[in-house]
Write a structure and sequence with these properties.
The structure is a single chain. The protein is an alpha/beta fold and 745 residues long. It is built from 26 helices and 26 strands. The strands form 7 sheets. Strands 1, 2, 3, 4, 6, 7, 15 and 16 form an 8-stranded mixed β-sheet that branches. Strands 19, 20, 21, 22, 23 and 24 form a 6-stranded mixed β-sheet that branches. Helix 17 (452-461) packs antiparallel against helix 18 (467-475) and helix 24 (676-693) runs antiparallel to helix 25. The longest helix has 26 residues, at 397-422. The protein starts with 5 loop residues before the first helix and ends in a 16-residue tail after the last helix. 37% of the residues are buried.
Length: 745
């Protein structure tokens, strides 16, 4: 079987090779990366505990606090009151700031008073005496420094570089947790910062520690999935806010780094990235850049929130805050600390730090298996590829389906088991994509080889109908024949007006691109409405409904396609104007009736097409669209077949070679979608048309003129007014039946 069907295995191997090259980073497929992030997000949402962790409390600089205290930033005296109340009144354990105090607080007016003391009031003893008395209360930065000193307080700051452009520095950085010199020679790709915004020196000097709260690892879609615990600045490593808070809880243990290593050529040890951060006996798993995957507990509110103003006014519940780990941050929209996350579109940045702290406390930080991730993924892909290669060659399509379902079940369940029980993040998108891709290929190949009759249908009709329609034909019990047969069908023809002039005005290459831009959406529209493309005739398209599959709504579907074609032409205007191409005007003729359909032609070339008198009438109607100034003209049979649509009767004409007149209609819209005003205008028009055919010229002229005033752009009114003017001076014959012999003129 393998030797008889080499293409089957070649394509399967090519698909396997393509996914492997993506996995190895040699030939990236961006859509697989996107699928992987989506799969990760789904697992995060499915595994979220959706419980509230009472150990971490967020003191929120919320809108209520801003309304009561004033806009941010607050005076440092208020922040000192906040800190004092947290420790003295509520007895909290640790406080971490998700805000920065990088500039001196001058809101007390002390700098102005000192300037007066050195200037105009330097000899005013009462003023100088009073200033000395109140100075301590006006030195608000010192006040906050006094509140911070000797307390478990971690200040917050941010680095500039990956997220914040520039090299400017503000404030004073804390002491680094480790220097690169202490690590020795290394090849670890630490995130490098170029600047920072830190706290005032007097505040940093008395604080227990500090941690950065920026995240340079925001994904391309703007989502927060990872946060670095370490960043490098000028050869020194600094810790994140969440890591600094955990160290404060654990009593400031020394920090160590676990580095993955492997033996390379000539027995040289090669560093392959970071593995974990050690805090005494505790290990926090990290990726090669020193980042952790955020262990989201659930949506916003997974931790207790306390309004900052309630802490300042001592109205908060002491049971919530006692011995708690407190993070001071904001959810107020105006302070712009809302992030996009897999768990929620807008998520408070401060709660991201809370989730990391909670995850580290519980030891629930999910991670990849480090240097083994690639090996595991490649092994899984090879197993999937080889199993499909061996089993599919001797299996029925049904067995291939069962194999694919089993593969998906094993991959998904195994992945979720390791995710939940071992906190391991293994690739999911590439194994699933390979499984589904190989299944589709092998199933399709076996299906079409075994079912030759159905394959012949696809081979015969793939050039005429859309893929969804082809699949419908394959599943259908209907018998399809390429031989000629007569059916009730509908034909649609389109034509570009002024194409000959247009083709002479633009370059051949532009003409080719223009025609592609014009014909492609028309083809897609026809096929999306179950139509069959007959042929392209230069600037024209011919299509029909009712074959190869019988279509009980062929007239209706053709009208829907015509409306969409007109709409697509409107959408093309902006594109054509941007390219400097002339605007295209289209005409569409539709007619229904008995037609012969099948493969027709000569011994040298045949085509699946329709022929007959009804088709010829469709061509006539296409030609008349320009004469009547309308986009679509349909025949009487089409009009009768779609009673739910309202039509405007354009004229009765006598076609050359036919005795009976033909009635031309313009489709307006479905009755339930037409406004009352449009219905009234159509009724007035048809009354005027009846007056015209009864030779009541004056009354008909009056009606047509009223209609013309309301819609001067509609050519049909001009046509009848011109005919009335002609008949007023040249009355028709006595047996005139109101038919206009357009084709005999």
């Amino acid at each position: 079987m393998t030797h008889r069907h080499p293409l089957r295995h070649i394509i399967g191997l090519l698909l396997l090779a393509g996914v492997l090259l993506h996995t190895l980073g040699i030939l990236p497929w961006p859509f697989l990366d996107r699928l992987e992030t989506l799969a990760y997000d789904v697992r995060v949402r499915l595994s979220a505990a959706n419980t509230v962790d009472q150990r971490v409390v967020i003191v929120d600089l919320d809108e209520k606090s801003l309304a009561n205290i004033g806009r941010w930033p607050w005076g440092r005296d208020k922040m000192a009151d906040l800190v004092d109340n947290l420790f003295d009144h509520y007895r909290v354990g640790v406080v971490g700031f998700d805000v920065t105090f990088s500039e001196p607080d001058t809101s007390s007016g002390l700098p102005i008073l000192e300037q007066l003391a050195r200037g105009p009031l330097k000899n005013n003893d009462p003023f100088l005496t009073e200033l000395r008395k109140i100075r301590p209360s006006l030195e608000r930065d010192e006040r906050l420094a006094d509140s911070i000193e000797d307390r478990n307080i971690i200040l917050g700051y941010y680095f500039r570089g990956s997220v914040h452009a520039g090299t400017h520095t503000f404030g004073q950085l804390p002491e680094p947790v480790i220097t690169l010199d202490e690590l020795g020679q290394h090849t670890i790709p630490f995130l490098k910062a170029t600047g920072f915004g830190a706290n005032l020196e007097m505040l940093q000097d008395v604080a227990l520690g500090a941690g950065f709260f920026d995240n340079p690892l925001v994904d391309n879609d703007g989502f927060f999935r990872r946060v670095p615990l370490l960043q490098e600045y000028q050869g020194k490593l600094y810790q994140a806010l969440s890591l600094a808070v955990i160290r404060a809880i654990l009593g400031e243990p020394p920090l160590t780094l676990g580095i993955n290593k492997t033996v390379g050529q000539q027995n040289r040890t090669i560093e392959t990235g970071l593995a974990w951060i050690g805090l005494g006996p505790h290990h926090i798993p990290i990726d090669e850049q020193g980042a952790v995957f955020i262990p989201y507990r659930g949506g916003q509110g997974s931790f207790p929130y306390v309004s900052a103003v309630d802490v300042i006014t001592k109205k908060a519940d002491p049971l919530i805050l006692q011995d708690a780990i407190v993070l001071i941050g904001t959810t107020a929209p105006g302070l712009k600390d809302l992030r996009s996350t897999p768990i929620q579109p807008l998520f408070p940045g401060v709660e991201i730090h809370a989730n990391i702290i909670s995850g580290m406390l519980d030891g629930l930080i999910k991670h990849t298996p480090g240097q083994y991730t690639l090996l595991v993924e490649v092994l899984i892909l090879l197993i999937i590829g080889l199993m499909f290669g061996f089993i599919s060659a001797k299996s029925s399509p049904a067995l291939i389906l069962y194999l694919a379902l089993l593969m998906v079940l094993i991959v998904v369940s195994g992945n979720l088991f390791l995710w939940k029980n071992n906190d391991l993040i293994l690739p999911l998108a590439s194994p699933l994509f390979l499984t589904i891709g190989l299944f589709i290929w092998h199933f399709a190949y076996g299906f079409f080889v075994v079912s030759r009759g159905r394959r012949l249908i696809i081979e015969a009709f793939s050039h005429y109908v859309s893929p969804p329609r082809l699949e419908e034909m394959v599943r259908s019990d209907e018998t399809f024949s390429l031989g000629g047969e007569t059916r009730n069908m509908t034909v649609l023809l389109t034509d570009l007006r002024g194409f000959t002039t247009l083709s002479e005005e633009i370059e051949p290459e532009d003409l080719s691109r223009l025609m592609s831009a014009f014909l492609t959406p028309i083809t897609e529209t026809i096929q999306s409405h179950s139509g069959t493309i007959d042929k392209y005739m230069g600037d024209s398209v011919m299509a029909f409904w009712g074959a190869p599959m019988i279509d009980g709504h062929h007239a209706r579907n053709s009208l829907l396609a015509a409306f969409d074609i007109v709409q697509n032409m409107e959408l093309l205007k902006a594109e054509f104007q941007a390219r400097g191409w002339p605007l295209l005007k289209i005409g569409i003729g539709i007619n229904s009736g008995r037609m012969t359909v099948g493969n027709m032609g000569s011994q040298f070339r045949v085509a699946y097409t329709v022929m007959g008198d009804a088709v010829n009438l469709g061509f006539h109607m296409l030609g008349l669209t320009k004469q009547y100034g309308v986009l679509i003209i349909v025949g009487e049979e089409t009009q009768k077949a779609v009673p739910e649509m309202l039509f405007r009767e354009l004229d009765r004409v006598r076609v050359k070679g036919r005795v009976e007149p033909e009635i031309l209609f313009e489709p307006v819209d479905f009755i339930h979608q037409i406004t009352t005003d449009t219905q009234a205008q159509l009724a007035s028009y048809h009354q005027a048309l009846e007056l015209y055919r009864n030779q009541q010229w004056d009354e008909a002229e009056k009606r047509f003129k009223n209609l013309q005033q309301r819609n001067p752009e509609r050519m049909i009114y001009d046509i009848y007014l011109s005919r009335i003017q002609h008949f007023n001076t040249n009355p028709p014959e006595e047996d005139w039946d109101g038919v206009f012999s357009y084709f005999n003129r």
